[in-house]
Amino acid sequence: MKKLGDARSFDGVQSVYEHDSDACRCAMRFAVYAPPRERATGEALLWLSGLTCTHENFIMKAGAQRVASELGLTLLVPDTSPRGDNIPDAPDGAYDLGLGAGFYVDATEEPWSRNYRMQTYIEKEFLPLAIDRLGVDPSRVGISGHSMGGHGALTMALRNPDIFRSVSALAPIVAPSEVPWGEKAFAAYLGSDRAHWRRYDATALVADGARFSPHVDAVLIDQGAADEFLESQLRPERFASACETAGIKMQLRLRPGYDHSYYFVATFISDHLRWHASRL
Amino acid sequence: MKKLGDARSFDGVQSVYEHDSDACRCAMRFAVYAPPRERATGEALLWLSGLTCTHENFIMKAGAQRVASELGLTLLVPDTSPRGDNIPDAPDGAYDLGLGAGFYVDATEEPWSRNYRMQTYIEKEFLPLAIDRLGVDPSRVGISGHSMGGHGALTMALRNPDIFRSVSALAPIVAPSEVPWGEKAFAAYLGSDRAHWRRYDATALVADGARFSPHVDAVLIDQGAADEFLESQLRPERFASACETAGIKMQLRLRPGYDHSYYFVATFISDHLRWHASRL
């Protein structure tokens, strides 16, 4: 684990690291915000980013460090896919498959299965590393994300109720099996048997009986009402309906006028950080 | 003036516009943050960005919209140079000359003099447009900027005491005639006669008798103590010394551990916005 750079930010330190990933068989970069030492609580939020993002978008655009500093919260920000010259990418360079579009799954299909193992990378490699090396208290980790990363946050939290004590998402893809982004990526990464897709689909996971940690009193979701992907790709009502049936509490806040961009994320990120800190 | 896009941000609107500039003889883009209508005061802050920046860096990275929304302040963010295929650039693609490096001067030398007229563009074209079309109160305009943009803010405020009622800067170049960035750019844009450089040098302007608006009770400058350009390019003590001789009050705050990046700007921008709003 090699530090590539750091910068003071709101009295804490914003760093970028690189390490060799066994899961992805390549060097992976990630960003960490460490709050000022005197305020650090050991609490951490794992943030999963959306399509096209690297480890940098969130730390540069969301303005999360201000509130993380105030709350003493560590921010853990991995990349969204393996990277490098030898890593397969979408043949047409599409933004929604391959580089920047790992969808937080372990691919089983060629040519993806060798490197696109983001589930294992995040759960078994990145998070243990953060706990081991970055002062994160393993019993006080929350998870959140934006768009494809909201999908990642919801599904990881449902599959790992022993790990994630608080859950939220901004404009998440909640039912990837049923929308074009997810259908394209899952068919490529996981093959045509849709039964294999269900463990990576938050709405299907809840229907199949998966539950969040008992510490999760409710899931917070913010969604822009003017989001250009709301009807075609996001469909939060599908997850809301599954949660209602399952007795999972959810706060779905529809935000008039807001789109899918980081201007939306930046506007509401402080609510999410406070939500997590009050539960961790 | 054509709107290229907008996004809701902290209940206001972050927009990008394009217009044909007479001064620069090309299309110029700029960004505007309009606070929520019910809080808009007509007060505006003109923000000048640093080397390599476009109109986008500040609006994406500084997190300024949050406080601008709270204060009802409009943010006006022009580009840092003319742009386009027909605009001359540094022959070696250097980051500190040509595109992204206009230095807020009116160039007199070839090949720059046709387009690199950022002083006239900002003072005579962009600001009047903002006043005319964006609801800005001409008697309540402040100016600030980062690095090369801090240089722009200080020099414009000193040359236009009738326009700018409040002044601040983050890590500004305060004596461009005496440091490598400024010497290179001024020699190229303005020629070898250093007498012509003085009107674009804040320290020289003060020495030559220029003064801020009588409304400017003090100039606020934040400077990272770990800024990699502090000793070679910035030298705030030179401006401090000129101000002391001239009886101009200055708050120079040296910030331990902070570098030259937008993480530094983002940490302290809210102080600057509040400084301006309380004086406009």
| Largest sheet strand order of chain A | 1-2-3-5-4-6-7-8-9
Q: Spell the H/E element sequence of chain A.
A: EEEEHHEHEHEHHEHHEH
Most extensive interface, chain pair and sizes: A-B, 23 and 23 residues
Terminus-to-terminus distance of chain A:
27 Å
Structure description:
2 copies of one chain form a homodimer. In chain A, α2 packs parallel to α9 (262-277). Helix content of chain A is 32%, strand content 22%. The model of chain A has no long low-confidence stretch (mean pLDDT 98). The first copy, chain A, has 280 residues and is α/β, with parallel strands linked by helices. In chain A, 56% of the residues are buried. Chain A is built from 9 helices and 9 strands.
Task: For this entry, give a set of tags.
homodimer; 280 residues; alpha/beta; nine-stranded mixed sheet; globular
Task: Summarize, please.
The structure is a homodimer of 280-residue chains. Chain A has 280 residues and is α/β, with parallel strands linked by helices. Chain A has nine helices and nine strands.
Reconstruct the topology from this structure.
The structure is a homodimer of 280-residue chains.
Chain A: E1 2-9, E2 12-21, E3 26-34, E4 44-48, H1 56-61, H2 65-71, E5 74-78, H3 118-133, E6 141-145, H4 148-159, E7 164-170, H5 180-190, H6 202-207, E8 219-224, H7 230-234, H8 236-246, E9 250-255, H9 262-277
Parallel strand pairs in A: 4-5, 4-6, 6-7, 7-8, 8-9
Antiparallel strand pairs in A: 1-2, 2-3, 3-5
Helix pairs in contact in A: 2-9
